[in-house]
Amino acid sequence: MAASLGRAVAGLLTRLQTSATTAQTLLPSSSCSQNIPSCLWKLGRLNHVAIAVPDLEKALCLYKDVLGAQVSEAVALPEHGVYTVFVELGNTKLELLHPLGEESPIASFLQKNKTGGMHHICIEVDNIKAAMTELKKKKIRILSEEPKIGAHGKPVIFLHPKDCHGVLVELEQA
Fold first, then answer.
1. Per-residue pLDDT tens for 62-119?
2. Distance (Å, rounded) from C-alpha 123 to C-alpha 139?
3. How many CB atoms lie within 10 A of CB 87?
4. Strand partners, 71
5. Taking the CB of residue 12, how many other CB atoms lie within 10 A of it?
6. Residue 95, strand partner residues
7. Can you tell me the distance from the alpha carbon of 156 to that of 149, in angstroms, rounded to the nearest whole number?
8. Which pTM value belongs to this model?
């Protein structure tokens, strides 16, 4: 699963990073390709992989007690309808998500996936507003009109999974 996740993330990163370059390359040489602005934002590092869990305490114990990872306290994020716990991995983090209330998007995810599973990936960007503008022009659907403040206290947006090869992608201001 890690290998397939890695390939999916690599493919998505390549698609998002090279779309402006590809557009320039595909234009006929007689066009005004010099007038196409370069990308005003850049993708950064993989911030975390989020996993929806039906039992937060059991999941927390697995990573902390069984696997020996450093695990944060659970934090309620009412504006997102979730409890979050971060598991530190050295090169990135896992974000354990548990529903906060019946209207939580994680509650609906867990209704379809009773044992939980990967919910989304989060990639840092250096300019979230510029990313939103450019992605909208490229017909990538964004699930909110404006960024919301995420679990790290920074602006975040989510990209529609149907536009990202079946992966829900969170972009977070670096």
1. 999 999 999 999 999 999 999 999 999 999 999 999 999 989 999 999 999 999 999 9
2. 19
3. 22
4. 87
5. 19
6. 50, 86
7. 6
8. 0.78
Which pLDDT does position 14 carry in this prediction? 52
Confidence of residue 38 (pLDDT cuts 50, 70, 90): low
The 3-class secondary structure across the chain, one letter per residue, is CHHHHHHHHHHHHHHHHHHHHHHHHHCCCCCCHHHCCCCCCCEEEEEEEEEECCCHHHHHHHHHHHCCCEECCCEEECCCCEEEEEEECCCCEEEEEEECCCCCHHHHHHHHCCCCEEEEEEEEECCHHHHHHHHHHCCCCECCCCCEECCCCCEEEEECHHHCCCCCEEEEEC
121 and 50 in contact (C-beta within 8 Å)? Answer: yes
Please answer whether residues 17 and 44 qualify as being in contact, where contact means their C-beta atoms are separated by less than 8 angstroms. no
